[in-house]
TrEMBL record:
Pfam families: PhyH. Its cofactor is Fe cation. It comes from Sungouiella intermedia. Belongs to the PhyH family. The lineage of its organism: Eukaryota, Fungi, Dikarya, Ascomycota, Saccharomycotina. This is CIC11C00000005312. PANTHER family: PHYTANOYL-COA DIOXYGENASE DOMAIN CONTAINING 1 (PTHR20883), PHYTANOYL-COA DIOXYGENASE DOMAIN-CONTAINING PROTEIN 1 (PTHR20883:SF15). InterPro entries: Phytyl_CoA_dOase-like.
Length: 300
């Protein structure tokens, strides 16, 4: 069986997140890790803008390089990569926060992993009739060098639906651990069941067609009582390299800073079901000028 068991489907539907150990073979995982390091090594910093990727709600990026990355292989720096003079403060391999958002379009290995028969089987198990691949990215959570806040690479509680808004909220993230994920190096944490109990109250949209960047706007919802988001309710998702974590678009999840001496690399992509519920306010458009020409999962 290459898809999900009924127990796995039930757990995902109940909790909003599911970890599947050994989804990738050891060879696949090693090749993806090698490809990730190659992309970092081959990156020519002199030819790219110094665009930083920020995870706080009030300072998310939204420049033209960010918008144009939807169908390209683009590089985004950590917030502390440069000093006040714009000089890189660390080796470039440790300065990149993520690479995105069109790896599945341009890198054969990541394309093949994304459109693997097992991924298609999982999508069918979850009820997708016409899944489209929205975006793909490599996420690099490098170690913080000391206990002081030298590198703030924690990701606060959020829902993916805030940034990839659909009606209804049925998108799913496929998150692959390329290295072992532990509490110490910032593994994922999630609040089970919040995809059913906590509404999405804000969404990240283009302002004036992107001419004024992006910002958060309120989303109307009918919920009068929203449960408190308590840190003690979060579950750790510690897992081995090669694991696949499925993430519902509306489940609250986060990760802490990497306090270990080891990196935590991951590859992730998101799928939606058709394009009818995906509007032009979303920052991610293919082509970047506007459109929903997302690759069809079942036809690749």
């Amino acid at each position: 069986m290459i898809g999900l068991t009924q127990d796995q489907i039930d757990q995902f539907n109940t909790e909003g997140m599911l970890c599947i150990p050994e989804f990738l073979s050891s060879d696949q995982t090693a090749h993806m890790l090698q490809a990730s390091r190659r992309l970092l090594d081959d990156f020519d910093i002199s030819t790219h803008p110094k665009t930083q990727f920020k995870t706080g709600d009030n300072d998310h990026i939204g420049d033209q390089y960010f918008f144009d990355s939807s169908d390209k292989v683009s590089y985004f720096f950590d917030v502390d990569a440069f000093d006040s003079n714009g000089t890189l403060q660390m080796p470039k391999q440790k300065a990149i926060n993520k690479i995105g958002h069109g790896l599945h379009m341009h890198e054969k290995l990541f394309h093949d992993i994304t459109f693997d028969a097992r991924v298609k089987a999982v999508a069918k198990n979850l009820g997708f009739g016409d899944p489209r691949v929205l975006q793909s990215m490599l996420i690099f959570k490098n170690p913080v060098s000391s206990q002081v806040d030298e590198r703030d690479n924690a990701v606060p509680p959020h829902t993916d639906g805030t940034f990839l808004f659909t009606k209804p909220q049925l998108a799913v993230g496929f998150w692959y651990a390329l290295e072992d994920c532990t509490e110490e190096n910032g593994c994922l944490k999630y609040n089970p069941g919040t995809h059913k109990t906590v509404p999405i109250t804000k969404r990240f949209v283009k302002i004036d067609g992107g001419n004024k960047g992006c910002n958060f706007i309120d989303v109307e919802h009918s919920d009068t009582e929203i449960p408190e988001d308590r840190k003690e309710d979060y579950k750790l998702v510690e897992c081995k390299a090669g694991s696949l974590i499925l993430i519902h678009n509306s489940v609250l999840h986060k990760s802490e800073k990497n306090r270990s001496g080891k990196s935590r690399y991951a590859y992730a992509f998101h799928i939606i079901d058709g394009v009818e519920g995906y509007d032009d306010l979303n920052w991610l458009q293919v082509p970047p000028s506007g459109g929903t020409n997302f690759l069809k999962l079942y036809e690749e």
